[in-house]
């Protein structure tokens, strides 16, 4: 039991600078955005009856359908260029294989996995559209 405590203390001693920097990074925004209403009563949020805190919706989706649609659109916007780059990479693998059977197999596998990923990406969009239209038709 004492050895575990000793190992934990050694870990803290070795990483004290990292822990301090992380704590400072987490605490400093809170301190820097704090406002003192006694020195500046006209500052926003220092009214006699401050309004309740509201959280704005950054996505703009009011229903689960809109949320899923927004998330899938984001994934597709990021995924399509990645797929294009992966296909280009597979082309380089084929060119650099130079007839070596093991390299050609590696290139074929990479292309197969890239195409499977593309099919999953596009298929998820198609399935989401199908479900959305079916639910809205009911």
Automatic annotation (TrEMBL):
Residues passing through the membrane, by range: 78-98, 110-131
Keyword Signal assigned: yes
Signal peptide coordinates: 1-34
Top-level taxonomic group: Bacteria
Keywords: Membrane, Signal, Transmembrane, Transmembrane helix
InterPro entries found in the cross-reference section: T4SS_pilin
Name of the protein in its database record: TrbC/VIRB2 family protein
């Amino acid at each position: 039991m004492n050895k575990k405590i000793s190992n934990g203390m050694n870990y803290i001693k070795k990483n004290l600078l990292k822990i301090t920097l992380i704590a400072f990074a987490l605490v400093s925004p809170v301190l820097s955005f704090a406002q003192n209403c006694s020195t500046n009563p006209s500052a926003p949020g220092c009214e006699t009856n401050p309004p309740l805190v509201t959280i704005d919706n950054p996505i703009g989706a009011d229903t689960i359908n809109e949320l899923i649609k927004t998330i899938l659109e984001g994934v597709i916007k990021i995924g399509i260029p990645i797929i294009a780059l992966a296909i280009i990479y597979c082309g380089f693998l084929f060119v650099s294989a130079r007839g070596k059977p093991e390299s050609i197999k590696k290139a074929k596998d990479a292309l197969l996995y890239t195409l499977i990923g593309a099919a999953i990406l596009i298929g998820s969009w198609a399935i989401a559209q199908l479900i959305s239209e079916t639910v809205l038709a009911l």
